[in-house]
Amino acid sequence: MDLHLAGRGYLVTGASSGVGLATARALLAEGASVAACARDPERLRERLADAAPEERMFLASADVRDAEQMRAFTDGAARAFGRLDGVVANAGRSLMAALDETGDDQLREEFDLKLFGVLNTVRPALEWLELSTGASIVVVNAILARQPESRLAATSAARAALLNLTRTMATDYGPRGVRVNSVALGLVDTGQWRRRYEDSGTELSYEDWCADLAADRGIPLGRLGTAEEVAHPVVSLLSPRASYVTGATVDVGGGIARYV
Ligand code: NDP
């Protein structure tokens, strides 16, 4: 099925690794233009260098927590492509700590990254998205938003607030022709888990460590997901084919969610 993405322009944050990188590559493979940011511009260029002709990419260093950097990045992208049709608010990480181990500054940082990181991404893009036919925003969130985990206390709370805010965006931006949806992740094999494996000091191979992790968390599909398995639903939600889907949350967690 043609997703009607060719010739359109999309902005992806956190595109040098994991879900953001797989999503940027999937959009480029569909013939779209992609504006991608991360804090480390060298890694971003390295990872996307071979993905598409230069004129279909706008790569820049920008921190989603910085509103001015995000406005400059968005304006640069929109000028380069002459349009913006969608946004993937993906950049982030999680804080593995129980509530009693989490300082107030860390709690504030989590809310800053999760809430303002998304607001700083979406706000400057809106004026461009309103000019598009079939504009779509996808916010990458976590199943933790609805199923909190004590070992990720601050991240779970910030994710819940983000899910709520994203639902409000769908209500407010729908009349302006912009759809807004969430993708809620379970455990996905990306840089985040690779870093945790390296910090763990385990003697297990990475594959065995991931298999144990999946068993410990009771994932019905018995494994972690891949970044590509997230990119496909994200790209589907960005497509004008999904023209009546807004305010939805799509779980991509191999069945880890226990709610119905
Ligand atoms: P990775 O660590 O693989 O990639 C994170 C990307 O975000 C990198 O490109 C990184 O580049 C960029 N980034 C991090 N912080 C910022 C920032 N402040 N401003 C701009 N870019 C930033 O992560 P994942 O692909 O695993 O995660 C993607 C999203 O999915 C995140 O929001 C994460 O919290 C969420 N998620 C992931 C889960 C998983 O199991 N993997 C589970 C649930 C949610 P750089 O460091 O150069 O900035």
Text of the CATH class of the largest domain: Alpha Beta
List the total number of helices: 8
How many domains make up the coordinates? 2
Each distinct ligand: NADPH dihydro-nicotinamide-adenine-dinucleotide phosphate
What share of residues are in beta strands? 15-25%
Number of strands: 9
Shape type: globular
What order do the strands of the largest sheet run in, or round the barrel if closed? 3-2-1-4-5-6-9
Structural class comes to alpha/beta
The radius of gyration over CA amounts to 18 Å
Percent of residues in helices comes to: 40-55%
Distance between the termini: 30 Å
Helix and strand element order: EHEHEHEHEHEEHHEHE
Return the average pLDDT rounded to an integer: 97
Identify the CATH architecture of the largest domain. Answer: 3-Layer(aba) Sandwich
The CATH topology annotation of the largest domain reads as Rossmann fold
Largest sheet entry: 7 strands, parallel
The poorly predicted ranges are: none
- Tell me the name of the CATH homologous superfamily of the largest domain: NAD(P)-binding Rossmann-like Domain
